[in-house]
Structure formats: C-alpha cells, structure tokens
Amino acid sequence: MKRKDEMNQSLSGPREQRQETEDIPEELNVLLAQLKQAEELFPVKVPSAEQLDQQLAEKLKQQKAASRRELAWFSLSSLAVISVSFLTFTEIPAVFMGIQLAASLGIPAGYLLVLQRKRRKDEVL
C-alpha cells in the first residue's frame, strides 16, 4: 500500500509541475505586455555613441576653460602679491597703494578660486 501511495504521489508530482510550467509562459506574456505598455507610455531615449562623444567633448572644453580662468586669477593674484612684496621691501611710498591693489585683486580672486573648487567637487559627487 505504501508503495502504491508513493507511486501515485510521484506520478502526480510531475503533472503538477507540468501545470506550473504551463502557467509560466502565460505569466511571462502578461509581464511582457505590461512592459511594452510601460515603454510606450514612458519612452526612454537612449543616447547614441556620437551624442555621448559630443557630451564628453563639451565637458572637456568646459573643464579646460575653467582651468584657464583659474590660472588667470591665480596669475593676477600672484602678480599683486609680488608687487606688494616688492614695494614693501624697497620702502617706496606707494606701499599703501600696492596693499590696496593686492587686497582689491587678491581677496576676490582667492574667493573665486575657492568657490570654483567647491563647485567642481560638487559636480564630481
């Protein structure tokens, strides 16, 4: 008797599995239909390789321009510091004008450099 029950269970097992596997394609078809509807409702534009290359080239141009601006500000502030140092060591009466020039150029230049670096760090993150 036990063997007959085991045989019946073993025979019924594959049938149940067959029914489950037959249900899977229907579920997949339903999921595929839902996916197609979602794609039609919300189309996703995939960029081509050319567009990605153009975006990369533009980004590189922006980075080069930012580097040039930073270099220009750095050179201006360094010239102001050098002129103030020269005027201070030679004790020319124009020392006060040099200090004013350095403060008026150096402080904003340094502030802009710090802001640009913060922006770059934020863009990377």
In a few lines, what is going on in this structure?
Pfam families: DUF5345 (PF17280). The protein is mostly helical and 125 residues long.
Give structural attributes.
2 domains, rod-shaped
Write the topology of this structure.
Blueprint: H1 2-41, H2 49-90, H3 95-124
Summarize the structure in words:
The protein is mainly α and 125 residues long. The protein folds into two domains: 1-50; 66-120. The protein is 90% helix and 0% strand. The protein is built from three helices and no strands. The chain has helices at 2-41, 49-90, 95-124. Helix 2 packs antiparallel against helix 3 (95-124). The chain is rod-shaped, with a radius of gyration of 37 Å. It starts with a helix and ends with a helix. 2% of the residues are buried. The mean pLDDT is 75.
Number of DSSP E strands: 0
Radius of gyration: 37 Å
Roughly what percent helix?
over 70%
Output mean pLDDT.
75
Shape: rod-shaped
Give the SSE order as H and E letters.
HHH
Strand content: under 5%
Structural class: mainly alpha
State the distance separating the first and last CA atoms. 71 Å
Uncertain parts: none
Overall structural domain count: 2
Q: Tell me about the biggest sheet?
A: none
